[in-house]
Amino acid sequence: xxxxxxxxxxxxxxxxxxxxxxxxxxxxxxxxxxxxxxxxxxxxxxxxxxxxxxxxxxxxxxxxxxxxxxxxxxxxxxxxxxxxxxxxxxxxxxxxxxxxxxxxxxxxxxxxxxxxxxxxxxxxxx
Length: 126
Hints:
Layout: E1 11-13, E2 23-33, E3 40-50, E4 54-56, H1 58-66, H2 75-90, E5 94-104, E6 107-116
Antiparallel strand pairs: 1-4, 2-3, 3-5, 5-6
């Protein structure tokens, strides 16, 4: 497996697909760029999910997070994009992503996005 940033997420078979159990991960080194100023934005990502058939592979997840380092992204957009990508990769029963961004202009921002298996997606506006 490479050790360079990559948007490719990997999964492995859930060893207990018959059971609901929660996996929680804390990713304290997430970085992207402010699309307005180009300055770095730092965040701690909290991933909490109930797997179905697949679990997220941790090294690939780390490299996926690294892939945002040089990209401009609004907090809301990047949080929801990561949620979409994680759900597409592992198709969980439930997934919550909480992104706690460090202070910018005197304001701490936390964005929380959730996915519930079987629920209709809301229609967004372009």
